[in-house]
Every structure is written in structure tokens, then in C-alpha cells.
Q: What sequence folds into this?
């Protein structure tokens, strides 16, 4: 049920082709409660033992490959690779 960008210039630019709309907006908002998730039954809690040794790599045209090599040699526990909207690397 991923959202896809269907039009780069229109007001109706995004669609979820694999799932019906959760709500529609006309004169008022019509929410499809049968499609939404239930409220949590427990209190919100934070997990204190999250990994903190992660890095975010923003790939843009002209990116220096030495940075990728340095990150590959680092003792990272996670790497978030930020690419273009379609997931393509430059």
C-alpha cells in the first residue's frame, strides 16, 4: 500500500493504487474507519537500547566516492542511504 507519485504538477499528484483511500474531502471529511488502525492499547514507551552508531548517506551528483569507502570501513551498525525519489543513485 505504498503511495506513488502519479503527476509532478497536478494537485492530485499522489495515489495508492494497491489500497483504497482512507478518507475523502468534499464538503466535509469522510474517513473510512474500517480501513484505519485501532488506537494503541498501551501507553507510548521509548526503547532506551536503540543503536546510535548509524550514519545517513545523501547521494547527489558529484559525490566523492572516498566518503563511501570511509563509511564502508567504519564500524557502523546502520546506514541510511538517501537517494532520489525513485530510489536511483546518481
A:
Amino acid at each position: 500500500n505504498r503511495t506513488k507519485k502519479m503527476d509532478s504538477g497536478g494537485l492530485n499528484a499522489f495515489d495508492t493504487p494497491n489500497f483504497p483511500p482512507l478518507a475523502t474531502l468534499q464538503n466535509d471529511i469522510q474517513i473510512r474507519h474500517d480501513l484505519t488502525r485501532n488506537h494503541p492499547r498501551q501507553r507510548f514507551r521509548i526503547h532506551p537500547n536503540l543503536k546510535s552508531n548509524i550514519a545517513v548517506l545523501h547521494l547527489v551528483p558529484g559525490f566523492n566516492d572516498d566518503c563511501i569507502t570511509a563509511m564502508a570501513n567504519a564500524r557502523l551498525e546502520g546506514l541510511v542511504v538517501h537517494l532520489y525519489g525513485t530510489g536511483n543513485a546518481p
In short: The chain has a mean pLDDT of 84. The first helix runs from residue 65 to 73. The CA atoms of residues 3 and 16 lie 5 Å apart. The radius of gyration is 20 Å.
